[in-house]
Amino acid sequence: MKEHEFFVGSEGREVFWNIPLPAFEIILFALTAVALAIFAYGVYRRWQMWKAMGKPEMRLDNIKERVKIVLAEVFLQKKVLKDPYPGVMHALIFFGFFVLIFGAAFDAGQHHVTEPLFSWTFLKGNFYLVFSFLMDLFGLFVLIGVVIALDRRFVKKPDRLGYRGTLDTTPDDVIVLLLIGAIIVTGFIAEALRIYVTNPSWEVWSFVGWLLSRTFTGVELDTARTLHQVIWWVHAALGLGFIAYIPYSRLLHIITTPANHFLTSFKPTGYIEPIRDFENAEAFGVGQLEEFTWKQIFDSDACTRCGRCQDGCPAYLTGKPLSPKKLVQDIKTYWLEKCPDPLKAMVAAKLAGAPAEGDAPAEETPAKALVGEVIDLHELWACTNCMYCMENCSSSIEHVPKIIDMRRYKVLTEADFSPELQLSCRNMENNSNPWGVGAHVRGDWAKELGVKTLAEDPNVEYLFYVGCSGSFDDRGKKISIAFAKILQEAGVSFGILGTEEGCCGDSAMRCGNEYLFQTLAQANIDVMNGYGVKKIIAICPHGYNALKKDYPNFGGNFEVYHHTEIIAKLIADRKIKLNEPLKGRFVYHDSCFLGRYNKIYDAPRQILKAIPGIDVVEMERKLEKSFCCGAGGARMWMEEDIGERINNARTKQAIEAGADMIAVGCPFCLTMMSDGIKDNHKEETMQAWDLAELVVKAMGREEVKPPVDTCAV
Fold first, then answer.
1. Per-residue model confidence as pLDDT tens digits over 674-689
2. Which end of the chain lies in a sparser environment, N or C, as judged by fewer CB atoms within 10 Å?
3. What digits encode the pLDDT tens for the residues 208-245?
4. Which CATH class is domain 289-413?
5. How far apart (Å, rounded) are the C-alpha atoms in residues 431 and 408?
C-alpha cells in the first residue's frame, strides 16, 4: 500500500480509527439517515403549512426561464452581490458551503460507497492534491464569511438588521452562525491532527490544515490520534445536525429563497393584478390572511430579514412607521400563529377521507384584523409604491401588491381612508382629475400653440396624452407647452384629445380605489380606440406606466412612450438642435415610475449631456437605488404628517451633490422638488426644471424665467 493511499483509502481509516470498517459504516449511515429523516419531516411539515392557506395562483409557467432566473440569482448571486459588503459576505458563505457539501459527498462517495464495492479510487495523485487545496480554500472562505457576519450583526449593527435602532437578532441567528463556524473549525482541526500524525510531504496542499498542524508540535502521537477521533465525530455530528436543523431555522431560506426566485412573476415590473369580477365579489382586496394568494404568503417565508428593502425605503428613512421588512415579517408571524388550525383541519380531512376545504378546525386561533392590528394603518398608507423594496430584494419578494390589496380592502370594502384622499377620488370621479377643475378647460393650454385635437384631425402618428398635471397644474402646463414646441420643431405628427381626455387613474388604483380606476381607464380606452390610436406619448411617468402596463387588461393595447424617450431620439436623429448654452450644475432625479418601473435611466441623462454649457453631477442615491420624491402611491394627494417630508429629504440629497439645478422627467417630481427647494430655503440659489423645459431653452425657443408656484393640492 502506498503512503498516499494510506490516508485516503478504507484500509488507512481502519488502522487510524481502530474501528472495524463495517461498524464504522453502519454508525455513520445510521446517523446520516436520522439527520435526513428529521430534515425531510421538517420540509414536509412546512410544505403542509404552505398549502394550508391562501388562494390559488399560477406560477409554474415558462419553466425554462424560471430555471435561468434561479441560476442567475442563486448560483451566481446576481442580486446579492449588488450590495458589495454584505453581498461578498453571503457569497463567501454560500459558495464555500456549496463546494464543501459537494466535496464531502464526493469524498464519502469514494470512502463509503465505491471502496467497499470496487477497488477503483479517484482521490489520489494530483487530483487529490487539487481536491484538498480547494476544500481548504473554500472552507476558509466560509470561515471569513462567518466572521464578517458576526462583525456586522454584533459589532457594526447596521440599522437594516433591526428596526428603529433595535436589533432583531434572534437566538436562531446566533446558533446558525456559530454552527457554521463550528463545522468549519472542527473540520480544519481534524485535518490538522491527521496531518500532524501522518506528516506526509504532499499535505502542504491542504494549506490550512498543514499550517494548523504546526501548532501541535510536542503532542504525543497517541494523544493526537485520540483527539482526531473525537474531533472528527464532533465535526460529523455538527454537519449532520446542520442538515437536520435547516427546516426549523432561518436556514430554511436555503430552500425557500431559491423557490421564491423560481416562482417570480413574469408580469411587467410593478404590475398590479386588477379585480376582474366586481359584480360577484363579496369583498374587495385583502382583509384576512386567507385572502392573500399562497404565493403572497410564501413570500414571507422566503424573507431572510436582510433589510435591503428597508435600507432604501423612503418612508422608513424619513421616520414613517413603514418598514417593508417588518411588514413582511409581521405577515409571517401571523401566518405562523394561524397556520396550525388549517393544518389540523387538513390532516383531519385526510384521515377522514374528506376534502380539507369542508372541515373546520377543532380549535381556532383568535382572529386579528389583518389591516389595523397585524399591519398598522400608518404603515399601510405610508408606502409611496416606489418599488425600491422589490427592485432590491435579494429574495424576489413582492411587497407592493400586498399593500395595494390591503388598501383595496380599506377603501372598497370598509370605505375607510383619509378625507383628503376621499376628496381627490371624488374629484376624479366627477371631473376626471384630482384637483376637481372643470374638465372643459383640459385642453386650454394648447390653444395658442395651434395644437389640434384628434376630433379635428385623427390622422396623426402620435397621441400626446397630456395627463391631469400637464392640463391643470400651472407648473405642469409649462411642461406640456415645452414638449409640444419640441414636437412641432421636429415636425412630429401628433394631436391631443382635449376635453375628451380623462385622468389615467393611476392614483385611484394605487390608493386602492380599483373600481374608480377601471372606470377612468375604460373611458379613456373607448375614446382612444374610437380614434384608432396606436402610439401614445405621455409626459407623466404615472400615466405612462398605467397606459403601458395596466390598460391592456381592459382592451387598451398601445405603443406607449415617455417624452424623455422621444426627446432623446429627436436629439440623436438631429431633428432638433440645441445651440443655446445653459448655465448651472444640474443633477437628475430619477422618477420611480420612470426608472425602477420602466428602466428608463439613460434617455434623461443623454438629454442633459446634449445640452451645451451645463455641468452634470449625480446624487449618491441614483438609478435603481434612487430615492423617491414622495408623490407616488397616491401620496401626492395625502398629508405627510409623520417624520420628515420625503421630498425635503430628496432635495437635501441634491444639495449635498453640489447642484444648483434639479432636472426631472415627471410633473409630480417637479412639484415635490420645487416644494423641497422652498422648504430647504434654497429658492434663491436652486431651481427645478423638467427636461422638456430645458431642451426648449437650449433650442432658443423660450426665455429662461423662474418657475411659478404649482397648483395647490
1. 999 999 999 999 999 9
2. N
3. 989 999 998 888 988 998 899 899 999 999 999 999 99
4. mainly alpha
5. 22
> Could you write out the DSSP letters of every residue in 543-611?
HHHIIIIIGGGGT---EEEEHHHHHHHHHHTTSS---S---SEEEEPPPTTTTTTT---HHHHHHHHHS
Q: Looking only at Cα atoms, what is the longest distance across the chain? A: 101
Distance CA 603, CA 567 (A): 8
147 CB-contact burial (10 Å; exposed 0-12 / middle 13-18 / buried 19+): middle
- Per DSSP, helices labelled H in 271-387 are 294-302, 308-311, 314-317, 324-338, 340-352, 377-382
Closest among 156, 214, 380 to 287, alpha carbons compared: 380
Hey, CA dihedral for 149, 154, 157, 162, is it positive or negative?
A: positive
Cell numbers given for 403:
399593500
CB within 8 Å of 125: residues ≥ 6 apart: 4
**Identity at 546, one-letter amino acid code:** A
Detail the DSSP E strand segments found in 140-290.
162-163, 166-167
SS3 category, 615: strand
Q: Is the pTM of this model over 0.85?
A: yes
CA angle (592 as vertex; 518, 406 as ends), nearest 5: 45
List the CATH code of the domain at 3-262: 1.20.950
The residue type found at 27 is I
Domain ranges of the chain: 3-262, 289-413, 421-698
DSSP E strands, 172-330: none
Cβ partners under 8 Å of residue 26, min gap 6: none
159, three cell numbers: 440599522
